[in-house]
Amino acid sequence: MYKVIGTTKSRAFRVMWLLHEIGEPFDHITALPRSEEAVRFNPTGKVPSLIDGEAVLTDSVAIMTYLADKHGKLTAPAGTVARARQDAMTLWLIDEWDAILWSAAKHSFVLPEEQRMPAIKASLKFEFERSTTQLSNRLDGPFLMGDQITIPDILACHCLNWAIGAKFPRTDDKLFHYAKSLRERPAFQAASAT
C-alpha cells in the first residue's frame, strides 16, 4: 500500500486527491514541511513524499505523473500528442501559478523576516491575474484537457484554492465555477477528510 507523507494543507493534498480519484488505497503519515518526519523521507524537508514499496518519491507533480502512468488513469498515454499537450499544461501551471503562489508564501512567512519583501506581492498578484485570464481563455469544456479529469485539473484546482487562502483576488467567474465543480467531486471530498 502507498504511503503519503505530508498534510492536507500542503502539496501532499494533490497526491491524496489523485489516489482517491484512481481508487488506490494509501496510508497517510502526517508531517509538516521541514519536520523531522518529513526530513526522514526527503532530506530537503519538503512534502509530499510517496512510499511505494522500497522506493521513496518526492515532488507532487512527479508523484502524480508516476501514479497516473502506473495505473493508466488521469493522464494521456506517454509518447502521444495528447500527452505532450497535457505535460505542457502541467508545466505552464507550475510556472505561471504554483511558482507565483510559492513566491508569495516565501515573502509572507517562509523566509526569515529580514529577507522578506512584502512589496513583491502586488506584482505577484498581477502576474497571477494575467495568467488566470489566459487559463480561462483556454478552458473549453468541463476539464482543462477535454472531457476527462487529468493531472492538470488537480494541479489547477489546488492552486486556485491556495490563491483563495493567500487572499489573491478572485478575478474570473469561469475558473471559479470550474474549481467549484472539482471541489464537489467525491475524491476531492475524501482527500479533504484525510
TrEMBL record:
Pfam families: GST_N_2 (PF13409). InterPro entries: Glutathione-S-Trfase_C-like, Glutathione_S-Trfase, Glutathione_S-Trfase_N. Residues 1-75 form the GST N-terminal domain. CDD domains: GST_N_GTT1_like. Residues 79-194 form the GST C-terminal domain. Transmembrane segments: none annotated. This is Glutathione S-transferase family protein. It comes from Roseobacter insulae.
